[in-house]
């Protein structure tokens, strides 16, 4: 940030009164320009023991598999954002079932929210940001070709829930408590 | 937004290629200025059957009671933001126990996250944004003087969990599944 978006004057970097962090402040109109983390919302679109994944057509991580997800817009809820991204990236309609994971990614100023969802039909079409869509059996996920660490964690948590909570009837049961976790930068990972 | 924060040129409002919503776009440097919802993070600081509330010293809702909460900063997780706000507004140290509520407030472009927490000491001090701090018995909350609808929903959900899940030993048990809800504008409320 170089210029005030309100009045166009060059901004200064300083700690405002009663604050504790440096902010971009306009010496002309006194506006303080706060910067805040952004929310990425997405779904785990399930159909029985299969899950829909999208192969990315855009950077970063072109050609890798991801869950449908993207930046939340203003004037929508996190559920609406997750459903919209599933529609835009995969042309797939889903019913939201539960919050699955809240993954903090502070080093890139993002919070990733994934909802477990049920695919309502099989008429999906790859969107402009998607090369290919595939239904993967949960037992056969493309672990070596996943796009992002948060996608990996969300899928690992899904399988862990499935493995530990198989009902006597063989019905798949998923975790009721969402995964809450902070993901460190790649360099800090074991 | 009137001016580009990167180059200082006046911005235009239009729908960029491959997009579906109008954005502020700079005709000089081509930067697209996205606007995103902000996260408010806070805690329900509990001590047995009592909860800490703060009486607000600042607008909006001066003099009304609230849970310690505020805008999440970059470079922190949602848990860190919740603990920091509890420290700044109440001088209180807490241990985070669980995600309690994720409340979408799309008409003001916010997502409110409340964590259930345990007060670690009783040495609280009102911060600059707080007039007064009090430990309220859960049976005697100031329902008519609460600052915000999300605070009310978070407290209602706490009590509902407490009421339905009292263990045989009389130990208080709280909900394991977080409340996920979208709050409508005041004019649309029943
Ligand atoms: Zn200015
Ligand atoms: Zn520009």
TrEMBL record, chains A, B:
Keyword field: Hydrolase
Keyword presence, Transcription regulation: no
Segments forming domain Nudix hydrolase: 36-159
Names of the cofactor(s): Mg(2+)
KW Hydrolase (keyword) present: yes
GO terms for MF: hydrolase activity
UniProt cross-references to Gene3D superfamilies, sorted A to Z: 2.20.70.10, Nucleoside Triphosphate Pyrophosphohydrolase
PANTHER family: NUDIX HYDROLASE 23 (PTHR43222), NUDIX HYDROLASE 23, CHLOROPLASTIC (PTHR43222:SF2)
Protein name (Swiss-Prot/TrEMBL): NUDIX hydrolase
Species lineage: Bacteria, Pseudomonadati, Pseudomonadota, Hydrogenophilia, Hydrogenophilales
